[in-house]
């Protein structure tokens, strides 16, 4: 799964506009390198994993033909039928993946795990209901929806299910590079003795993996154009070899595609055949990427690429291997059934080189996809905040997370060195793959009822048909727990614990903030001066609250002799949609009467949105407040009213139209005056010096004097400087809490909080402008 969003090449919302056939075919070609790198390299290790120990290749060919039949029908039913024709339709405004399904369910059934959700969020343009009225829902569907909304335990189970799927994708990010690169390098064993090969294979695989992870910091935009040609060359290579083997060794191998050979296979091999399914299921490794990378392509382009290129190439490759093996029953004792043994000896070395490149491309895709899903989890409050680096100035989807990258590399090397064979790596990778598919099947059954408003019986049929197939493969993988399958389970438990502890601690902290927020009557009793000296400048108070006055503010007012002339309560929140349009970015309102100069600003981001740099964000923030002041009229106050604090919030875009306020940037020789709009890029000097920004309020008869005065105060305060005020929280469990809660909060959450990024990740405020005040939270 790779994150690529090019300028004019890969549209952000491909489902929303009609594309020409030229564009569709271009996207289909590009998707080969981004989506199908992992899936296309599976012929390297499927037969080798299937025949590892459980079954043996006999003269009757029943085993090899049975495996081929299983591979054919597995590829046909899972990626082709399930994903291409059904799952790809369950997009979240063009986005796909486990969290896209969960986000879709959150909006349709109000089971959102985010603590600071608002009714105003439901008015976002991407917060759509797929154009289907709720009265189309069946009686059983309505009762299912109400049951989910009533019972918190079911909502938690739904969240845990999504987290398990996500953690298995992360586990796949560890296992896929290991097995792909190791299997590609294993071709060396046909060119050297067993003793030599033992000392070459593992070091070579580790060297390639270290090189691969070390390159992540530089991004892939410089060599990304090579991905599709590499995978295309690999697919043409394996399909050509497959056609050659079919006609040269066994033209009648096509008969093995009959389901009857699956019956004969299981009848002869029995338990051994069932256990070998754990290796056979590796033929669909990477299928989930078709759905996960949907946001970067269109449904049609992904369907065309798989149906007309990837699917037939893989089938020909597997048929060719089976045709060769059906005529070669005696293999050397030091080599087991594998991919390279069926490759003609004259072209074995070129194929080895192409295979290594294809394995690297497939591994790159899953690594970048892991970065992407970590970012989504963090945005939805299910993973500690981490440093996110955008590696390309043009392709905004390409990100790099240092902590995750080096963690993946160490785990990947540990798996490679520890296992040293494709058998145990295959067992581990297979369990991760099939678990993700099971989670997708479960979530899809809910989407069919709650989002598509189809019959419950259709959902039951879906989960019964595909779930039974996946359960069969899952049982075959799970039985090999001690032979490698424990790795994805261990990784999933660790990452799930981290995610759930962080989510639980964040939720409890927010509940404490809500319970301890200050009454508006307290603010009114202080008067416009707040009982202290108001000095020039803007105080930016970070809070998770979307309404009310945070307790930290009363702490400041009662302990500081002076405070800023303008105070902004800033909440940077995520909403369960992939993207929030710039026109709907900010919700702005007042806290208290006008003369208090207290404002609330809520910046909303989707789980795939990119947070802006500090200069541009500060400019948009001040402009949104100025636009709110300028256009504040009863008819402009929309979306939501907080009944407790009587706060009216107005939607303000980052590119507000024709704002009466202008920004003048003093940047040296190239000083210029620009409109207050984020559509104009801020040009930064190489030394990243912060420009001095002056705001100009032009005289206009359309703006009354009271509004002009308030705007001038805002601009004067901005020119005087902005301070970022942050409450440094120490969360502790209440006295009398259970032992488990004390462990989770006092040890787990506290450790994660101290080792994660602070909440000012979107604002690179200078250290001198940041004020941190400690507070103890008893949750």
From TrEMBL:
Primary location: membrane
Location(s), subcellular: Cell membrane; Membrane
Keywords, ordered alphabetically: Ion transport, Membrane, Potassium, Potassium transport, Transmembrane, Transmembrane helix, Transport
Function: Potassium transporter.
Protein family (similarity comment): Belongs to the HAK/KUP transporter (TC 2.A.72.3) family.
Domain named K+ potassium transporter C-terminal: residues: 537-778
Record has Transmembrane helix as a keyword: yes
Organism: Hibiscus sabdariffa (roselle)
NCBIfam families, A to Z: kup
Protein name as catalogued: Potassium transporter
């Amino acid at each position: 799964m790779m994150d690529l969003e090019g300028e004019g090449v890969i549209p952000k919302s491909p489902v929303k506009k009609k594309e020409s056939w030229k564009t569709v075919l271009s996207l289909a070609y590009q998707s080969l390198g981004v989506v199908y790198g992992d899936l296309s390299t599976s012929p390297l290790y499927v037969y080798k994993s299937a025949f590892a120990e459980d079954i043996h290749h006999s003269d009757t060919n029943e085993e090899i033909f049975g495996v081929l039949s299983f591979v054919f029908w597995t590829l046909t039913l899972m990626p082709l039928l399930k994903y291409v024709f059904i799952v790809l339709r369950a997009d979240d405004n063009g986005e796909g993946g486990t969290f896209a399904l969960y986000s879709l369910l959150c909006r349709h059934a109000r089971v959102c795990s985010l603590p600071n959700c608002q009714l105003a969020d439901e008015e976002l343009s991407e917060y759509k209901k797929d154009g289907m009225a709720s009265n189309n829902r069946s009686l059983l569907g309505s009762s299912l929806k109400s049951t989910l909304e009533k019972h918190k335990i079911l909502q938690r189970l739904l969240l845990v299910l999504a987290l398990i799927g996500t953690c298995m994708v992360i586990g796949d990010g560890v296992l896929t590079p290991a097995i792909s690169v190791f299997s590609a390098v294993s071709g060396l064993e046909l060119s050297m003795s067993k003793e030599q090969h033992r000392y070459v294979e593992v070091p070579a695989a580790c060297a390639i993996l270290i090189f691969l992870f070390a390159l992540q910091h530089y991004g892939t935009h410089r060599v990304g154009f090579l991905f599709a040609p590499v995978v295309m060359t690999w697919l043409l290579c394996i399909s050509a070899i497959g056609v050659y083997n079919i006609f040269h060794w066994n033209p009648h191998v096509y008969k093995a595609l009959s389901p009857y050979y699956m019956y004969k296979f299981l009848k002869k091999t029995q338990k051994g055949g069932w256990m070998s399914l754990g290796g056979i299921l590796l033929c669909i490794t990477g299928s989930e990427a078709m759905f996960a990378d949907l946001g970067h392509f269109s449904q049609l382009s992904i369907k065309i690429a798989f149906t007309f290129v990837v699917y037939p190439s893989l089938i020909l490759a597997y048929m060719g291997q089976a045709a060769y093996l059906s005529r070669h029953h005696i293999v050397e004792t030091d080599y087991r059934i594998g991919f390279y043994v069926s490759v003609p000896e004259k072209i074995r070395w070129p194929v080895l080189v192409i295979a290594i490149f294809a394995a690297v491309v497939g591994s790159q895709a899953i690594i970048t996809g892991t970065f992407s899903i970590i970012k989504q989890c963090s945005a939805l409050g299910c993973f500690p905040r981490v440093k996110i680096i955008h590696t390309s100035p043009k392709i905004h989807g390409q990100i790099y997370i240092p902590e995750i990258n080096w963690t993946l590399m160490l785990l990947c090397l540990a798996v490679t060195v520890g296992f040293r064979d494709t058998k145990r790596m295959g067992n581990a990778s297979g369990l991760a793959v099939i678990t993700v598919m099971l989670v997708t099947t479960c979530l899809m059954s809910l989407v069919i009822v709650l989002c598509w408003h189809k019959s419950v019986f259709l959902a039951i049929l879906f989960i019964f048909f595909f779930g039974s197939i996946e359960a069969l493969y899952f049982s075959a993988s799970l039985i090999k727990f001690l032979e490698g399958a424990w790795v994805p389970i261990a990784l999933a438990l660790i990452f799930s614990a981290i995610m759930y502890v962080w989510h639980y601690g964040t939720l409890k902290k927010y509940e404490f903030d809500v319970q301890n927020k200050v009454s508006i009557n307290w603010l009114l009793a202080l008067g416009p001066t707040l009982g202290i000296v108001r000095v020039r400048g803007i105080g930016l108070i970070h809070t998770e609250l979307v309404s009310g006055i945070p307790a930290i503010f009363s702490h400041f007012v009662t302990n500081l002799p002076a405070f800023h002339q303008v105070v902004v309560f800033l909440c940077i929140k995520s909403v369960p949609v992939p993207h929030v349009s710039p026109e709907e970015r900010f919700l702005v309102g007042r806290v208290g009467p006008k003369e208090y100069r207290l404002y609330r600003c809520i910046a909303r981001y989707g789980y795939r949105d990119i947070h802006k740099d500090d200069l541009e964000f500060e400019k948009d923030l001040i402009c949104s407040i100025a636009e709110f002041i300028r256009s504040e009229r009863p008819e402009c106050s929309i979306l939501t009213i907080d009944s407790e604090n009587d706060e009216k919030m107005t939607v303000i875009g980052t590119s507000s139209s024709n704002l009466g306020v202008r920004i003048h940037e003093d940047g040296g020789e190239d000083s210029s005056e620009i409109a207050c709009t984020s559509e104009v890029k801020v040009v930064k000097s190489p030394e990243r010096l912060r420009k001095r920004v002056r705001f100009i309020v032009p005289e206009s008869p359309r703006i009354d004097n009271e509004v002009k005065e308030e705007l001038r105060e805002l601009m004067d305060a901005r020119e005087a400087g902005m301070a970022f005020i942050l409450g440094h929280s120490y969360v502790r469990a209440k006295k009398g809490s259970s032992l488990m809660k004390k462990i989770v909060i006092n040890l787990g959450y506290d450790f994660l909080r101290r080792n994660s990024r602070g909440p000012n990740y979107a604002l690179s405020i200078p250290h001198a402008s940041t004020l941190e005040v400690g507070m103890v939270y008893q949750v």
